[in-house]
Give the backbone structure.
Amino acid sequence: MKHALLAISIALLALGCGKGELDPASLTSNPFDADYDGPPVFVYDSTYTQNVTIPGGIIINQVIAFHVKGELLPANNGYSVRVVETATGDSTLIDPIPSDNNRFRYSRANPVVGTLCVRLGLHNNNATSRREEICATL
């Protein structure tokens, strides 16, 4: 009886081996993956200027507001957004405002009259996802 149970157990283990093996190259549905091939994650909302009072005067900033399609993200994932200006290559890491939602505001000094494009990528665990470009016209 012991030999029969052992033989059945070994047979079941052998049948289970190799099933469900994953091909990492085919895993491209997570927006945090650099090889993500799904729909756009970022949505442009608006651009505007904002006066900031500092000692000695006022600075005018340009703000680009956008949001992340939260329904595309895995549940309970904290993240920031890496913003790279396409014209200058300047890079900034920003957090959502307020911190418990998917809305972001990228602020830069010296507003650009005309079109300003930025490349956006989700950022967590020291890695940045596929980048998407949005453009704002002031």
User: Anything to note?
Assistant: Residues 2-16 form the longest helix (15 residues).
